[in-house]
Design goal:
This protein is α+β, with helices and mostly antiparallel strands and 106 residues long. The chain has helices at 2-17, 47-54, and strands spanning 59-64, 69-73, 77-82, 85-91. The longest helix has 16 residues, at 2-17. The chain has a domain at 30-91: Beta-lactamase Inhibitory Protein, Chain:B, domain 1. A four-stranded antiparallel sheet has the order 1-2-3-4, with no helix packed on it.
């Protein structure tokens, strides 16, 4: 009885093993963003230097956690600060078919 169950289980696994697949999405590194990452604020510079070099952010989020992490959002990128210094700046992904600016609400 046990050998019959084992044979049936192995037959089932063999029959379904070929059906399992995954698609792989490959995006060339240079086409992942529409902003040159070398133009982003570099790690360690102050909030004042970011404001002087890139202007006022569109959105400023309050500090969260300990140590306090603050985020400033610009049209094409976001800057993360620990206390008052940049720890990371990232390009914000925008879908190719998305409008450049969000529609205004009535």
């Amino acid at each position: 009885m046990r050998s019959t169950l084992r044979i049936l289980a192995l037959a089932f696994l063999a029959a379904t093993a070929g059906a399992v697949r995954a698609d792989e999405l490959r995006i060339p590194l240079g086409s992942q963003g529409h902003v040159d990452a070398s133009g982003l604020p570099s790690r360690g510079i102050s909030m004042e230097r970011v404001r002087a070099g890139w202007g006022e952010p569109e959105v400023t989020l309050d500090p969260v956690g300990q140590p306090p992490i603050t985020r400033w959002d610009y049209p094409d990128f976001s800057v993360y600060f620990e206390y008052r210094h940049v720890v990371h700046a990232v390009v914000r992904h925008r879908r190719a078919d998305a409008p450049a600016t969000p529609p205004m609400e009535p």
